[in-house]
Specification:
Blueprint lengths: L2 H63 L2 H11 L26 H12 L1
Length: about 120
Amino acid sequence: MTFKVKLRTLIGAVLTVLAFFSLPLIAVWKKSKVVDMSETNAMLQQDVIKLENQNLILRFHANQLCSRSRIEDVAKNELGLDYPKNEDVTVLVRYSVKAEKKKGISGILDGLAAITK
């Protein structure tokens, strides 16, 4: 046998041995990665469930805080506000003023008449 034939045989034998040992190692590594990813996926799914529950609780609290009864309660108890009484209400009316201004009650009545038209 010549040197080239021996070299080819040696290289072929080394490649065969490497292939024989590396293929099972690759399969084990692949299964190990699948198991790791499955564990990570399970943890992430648990996190998603926890966050969805927390989001639901926060929405409930936000709806409670935005409710009309809660706003009225804060206005009365914490801010000291109350609904106005009839004598506390003043109605302001804006009316257009013409070039000739009338003084007194007649000017106001003319302005109100212009608004109601």
